[in-house]
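User: Working on a comparison across species. This one is Pilus assembly protein CpaB from Labrys wisconsinensis. Can you predict its structure so I can line it up against the others?
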Amino acid sequence: MKTAQVAVLLIALAAAGGAGYVYLASNPAPVPLAVAPPAPVAATKVLVAASDINVGTALGPRDMRWQDWPEASIGPTYITDKNDPAAMETWKGAIVRTPFVAGEPLRAQKLVKANSAGFLSAILPAGMRAVATKIAVDTAVGGFILPNDRVDVILTRRDPETTKQTGVDAWTSEIILRNVRVLAIDQNFEEQDGQKVIAGSTATLELTPPQTEVLALGKEMGSISLSLRPLADANPTGLEGAATPETGQGVMGAGTVVRYGITNAAPR
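Assistant: Here's the predicted structure for Pilus assembly protein CpaB from Labrys wisconsinensis:
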């Protein structure tokens, strides 16, 4: 390379470097702005579902937990530690009316407490019915029947045929329903304050649809008594129909037999 060419190249490089220096000097790098840390978000503890909860579940301690929730996002129906610090105890045993997913805030509108409107329908298993029947203390084991006990339902009625034949008033008694659950005695759905005896005038029983028909007919035919069964019979699979083991028949009327809720002509 000739000397002249080298000189021209050096002059060009020097000119480029000078131009870059001038540009940088006139356009300094921007100074980074100081960014303030985000302000802390005010939070309140909200009672939420600890896991997915199905309809009809009775809430227990494992179904609920407290979770920090932004105050700006708290709805008026949420249960917080500010408006109810003892909420886990307050709502223990309440029945879920609509399902919850894990982490969803629990709301009073979706829960039913014992002795409140809607509680009875919430505790009924699918397909079952609640039917009330009048009882007296002397026909309900002296008042020692409690909600969730199992009972047999006994019908006592006058026997007109035997009375006609003998000329003496004759009465008959038969079990028309076996091993049914007592939902409530009067307005009491559960044992309260250590109470061991509930003396009431009305028992609400959990029955299948055919059993409701048997009970309704039995109440028209005579007086109803309850016979207390042992705790060992509390297994739901122990439910039996309305037939009596002695005759295989249910409540008998004039010319009819109700067998598991189905009315047929009585045998002659």
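For your comparison, note: The longest helix spans residues 3-26.

User: Helpful, thanks.
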